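Data card: per-record layout.
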Amino acid sequence: KSLAGTVTMINGDSFTGKIVFDLDEAYDFEILNGENDDIEYFIPFRAVKLIKPKNYYFSQVNLIDGEQLLIGDSQDLSDKNYGIIVFESEDEYKYIPWEKVEEIKFK
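The structure for this 107-residue chain is written out next.
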């Protein structure tokens, strides 16, 4: 199914709807990539509950099963991310640059 949830910006604004992550991942079967301490992670989005950027290189990733990871050094979870699009309706969408994302909560 489509990715959906709420994206909160660092200024406090939030947008809820269908999500396109890094401008190319829009479904729960797609993969979130990253690494830490020489461990590479390939996590299907359906297992991700929350993503919270921490700095230019790493993000906190909370999984549905309760596990919390610090992952980065990748396109998906660092300042290399192209940003998020939230479709609040078919006609209304908001583009949010990665550096303005406080957190993403998936449904």
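Known properties of this structure: The chain has a mean pLDDT of 97. Strands lie at 4-9, 14-21, 31-36, 39-44, 48-53, 58-63, 68-72, 84-87, 93-96, 101-106.

See the next section for split statistics.
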